[in-house]
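Quarterly update from the structural biology core.
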Amino acid sequence: MSTAHDVVAVGNAIVDVLAHADEAFLAAHGMDKGIMTLIDAERAEAIYRAMGPGVECSGGSAANTAAVIAALGGSPAYIGKVRDDLLGTVFRHDIEKAGVAFGCVPSADGASTARCLILVTADGERTMNTYLGACRELTSDDVDAALIADAKAVYLEGYL
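Predicted structure, tokenized:
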């Protein structure tokens, strides 16, 4: 039996936003250096407005796994929830350009696309502030049963 994809990965569709920051920035915003903190939408917007220029790229454990499978010559697909917003567009662009099939329809309403605001200090430490947003709204309606049935394997992100 022929399968359409080697792996279908299901996970939190998150856009990583990386920027340099100094110790004073972390202190001013009450961040504990080197840890990951879950944040709400309001805090995500406040940190984003305050941080310096960043680099955006799609991320999330399952999405990253799918991208590596594609880089190694496999045929992956990904299921995750994004909003029809700028970061949702970034996520779709990056994952598709990595060679991963992503057929999920973005939400027209609800929470914005998830993001992890990663502040990197001069010593290389990463302080992460993660807003889960739209990916928390993933439901069984977003899962294409035929896509799952036709895959050789299904990878479910542990964070779900």
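The chain is about 30% helix and 30% strand.
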